[in-house]
Amino acid sequence: MALNPQYDAIGKGFVQQYYTLFDDPAQRPTLANMYNVETSFMTFEGVQLQGAVKIMEKLNSLTFQKITRLVTSVDSQPMFDGGVLINVLGRLQTDEDQPHAYFQTFVLKPIGNSFYVEHDMFRLALHDV
To answer: Which part of the chain is the NTF2 domain (predicted)?
Structure first.
């Protein structure tokens, strides 16, 4: 399979759609459709999860009610299997907590005329020394 020439638009469009769903508690459960039942992986703050069920259990266990997000940059690269590697840098604030910078990396894997999230890594940029 060849490199996808639309990788940048795909990356930016995906990030916008993903965070629109994630940031709305009523729509967050629909993120399950973006992950593969068996082969998707997520690392969330150092905790590794595999499969859409485990990933959604983690996302649904998050207790905040309100999230404010600022996406600073979305950098994408094409992959040789037609997929897209996406790195997001941003800042978020949940409920009344202090805002924190975060990094999130996605690997989108092609499936038919669409993509699913094969890998998802999220980390707040906290420096505990």
So the answer is: 10-124
pLDDT > 80? residue 127: no
Q: Are 9 and 29 in contact (CB under 8 A)?
A: no
Q: Give the whole-angstrom CA distance, residue 85 versus residue 65.
A: 29
Whole-model pTM above 0.85?
yes
124: confidence class by pLDDT, cuts 50, 70, 90: very high
What does the CA dihedral 22, 33, 53, 60 come to, rounded to 10 degrees?
A: 20
